[in-house]
Amino acid sequence: MSKRFYEHAAVAAVEGGFQVELDGRAVKTPAGSALIMPTHALAEAVAAEWNAQGDEIKPKSMALMPLVGTAIDRVPDVRDGLIEGLLRYAETDLLCHRATDREDLIERQEKMWQPLLDWAADELGARLEPVHGIIAQDQDPVAIEAFKTALEGFDNWTLTALGELVGISGSLVVGLAVAKGRLDASQAFAVCQVDEDHQREFWGEDFEATARREGIRVDLATAYQFLKLSQGESV
Asked: What is the pLDDT of residues 99-148, one digit of tens each?
């Protein structure tokens, strides 16, 4: 933490987008790059994070600022590797791994997950086949190539959000469904918590599991907010 050294954060229009200024001085990324964002909405939200600081600046209280830095400093240099990393989730996608017993859980997974797999097949031309159990099976290379095409069509800001959404949910399909407007943050949370919800109902509440669940909910909401704001939409 460091002492607050500015009075007010504001948004300024500049070439290429919008930046946040602290008492008229432009904020830089951790790597020293210009912190220029594609939309006024995102810049306003980042400025609000700076204005919300007290006498001391607490970086951990700024949820959007690190994502902006990642989109500017890191993703352009690792874009191809990021896409390849996201594609690996298609081989072990959460939505493809169904329970082997407990019919109520199997039915819930089918109800919550299969429509999204069908959506990916219809919308993206990427059909993944579910399996019962935790052992992954090889998926159709045509599906993997279709996912790759979809990912390559996104800009660095959306890819940054996808990196968060997919990593948190454990599902490339869920991440893409959010990016494409098929799911919002609360719906994505419900989808990726099917197994955990069943466990909680069966065994009862657990403090650590509850804290972990809340962390996932908050992280998904932040990634969703970043995605929408970077697209100029309100959340």
From this structure: 888 889 999 999 999 999 999 999 999 999 999 877 878 899 999 999 99
Give me the sign of the Cα torsion angle 18, 19, 20, 22. Answer: negative
Backbone angle region of 145, left / alpha / beta, with phi > 0 → left and psi within -120 to 50 → alpha: alpha
Question: Under a CB-based contact definition with an 8 Å cutoff, are residues 156 and 70 in contact?
Answer: no
pLDDT at residue 209 in the model = 83
Measuring CA to CA, how many Å separate 101 from each of 134, 142, 228? 13, 31, 39
CB 158 within 8 A of CB 227: yes
Residues whose CB is less than 8 angstroms from the CB of residue 97 and which lie 6 or more positions away in sequence, other chains included = 130, 131, 133, 134, 136
Task: Tell me how far CA of residue 88 lies from CA of 81, 91, 106, 163, 166, in angstroms.
Answer: 11, 6, 24, 12, 11
